[in-house]
Specification:
The protein has about 350 residues and is an alpha/beta fold. Helices cover about 45% and strands about 15% of the residues. It has 13 helices and 13 strands. The protein has helices at about 5-15, 20-25, 35-45, 50-60, 75-90, 105-115, 130-140, 160-175, 190-205, 220-235, 245-255, 290-310, 315-320, and strands spanning about 65-70, 95-100, 120-125, 140-145, 155-160, 180-185, 210-215, 240, 265-270, 285-290, 325-330, 335-340, 345. Strands 2-1-3-4-5-12-11 form a 7-stranded mixed β-sheet, with helices on both faces. β1 (about 65-70), α5 and β2 (about 95-100) form a beta-alpha-beta unit. The termini are far apart.
Amino acid sequence: MGAKVTISSVAKATGRSISTVSAALNGASGVAESTRAEILQAAQRLGYAADPNAQQLRRRHSGMMGVVLTAGQAFQVRLLDAVYVAAKDLNVDVLVAATTANHDQEAGVRALLARHCEGLVLIDPDDDETGRQGQIGKRVATVVLSNDAAAPGVDSVLSRDDVGISASVDHLVLQGVRRITYIDGAGSSACVRRTRAYRQAMKDHGLGQHIQVVAGGTSEAEGARAAQQLLDGGDLPQALMCFNDHCAIGALMALVRAGKRVPQDILVMGYDGIDLAGVSALELSTIDQNATLMSRVALKLAHARSLQRRGEPVSLSETLEEFGDNIHITMKADQSVCVEVKPRMIMRSSTKFM
C-alpha cells in the first residue's frame, strides 16, 4: 500500500503553499479559480481524500494568525510589513496587537486570543520572567521572532547575531582601527547575545585589551547619551559599534554636534538595517537582518504548527524546504525548532575613510 496522500502531498505536487491548497480544497474564498481548478485536478489525480474528522475540526477554527510587536521600533515595523506580504502569499489573515507604555504584551496576547487567533508570532517579546511564553504556547501555536524562545514547545526565528557582530568587527579591523567600543542595548532582549559576540570577535582579532562596553539602549536618546559619556571622558575610540541603528544614529548625531567628523575622526557602525540608516545625511553602515526572510519563515512556521494542532499531517521539513540554505534549523529536545537566518553587511560612508 502506498503512502497516504495528504494536503502536503498536493501542495508539493502543485508548487502551492499548504494554506492555499487547504483553502482551495475547502472552498474558501481568496483563491483564484484557475488555481483552485489546478489544485482540485491534482488532488483527484493523486487520490487525495479529505479526512472527515479533520474537516469537522476545521469548521471550528478561524485560521487567523496574530502578531504582537512593540510600537516605535522601526525594525519591528519592517518585520510586521514582511509578515503582511507573507500572509498574502499564504492566503491567511493577520491581526496585530501593539505593545506600548500603557498596553503591555500580555494585554496584546489576550486581545488576539479573544479574536480566536490560532497562531501567534511574538516579535522580540519581553523577558519571560513569569513563563508567559510557555503558557501562551500551551493554548495556541506560538513562534518568537527576532529572539530565542524562552519556553519549551515554543518555536523561534532569529538572525545570527554572532555572524553579524563578527562581520562588523572584521570590517572595522580591515579599515585599520583597533580601539573599537561597543554601545550595548541595556536591558533589551538581544543585548547579552550581541555583547558576548562583540567580546569574542575582539578576542579573535587579538584585541582583547581594547574591549570596552558602554551602557546604551535601543533609542536615539540613549545612543546620544552614551556617545556624550565617551566625549566627556576625553579619549574617544577609533570606532563605535552600536546595538541597533536607532542607538547608532543618536551616537552619530552627538558626535557631529561635538564637532567630530564621521568617518574621518571616528567610525560608526549600526545594526538592523532600517531604512533611516541609509539616508544621505547619515550614510550609516549597518547589518541587515533580512526581515523579509525572517518574517516569512515565522509566519509559515506558526501556520504549520496551527494546522498540526488541528490534526493535519503537515511536515515542518516540507513547510520550510523552500528556504534551502538560507536558513539553519535546529530541532530541540522538546520538538520545538530554532530557525536561524544569516544577516548581511551594508557598508556605507560612516565606516569608510574618505
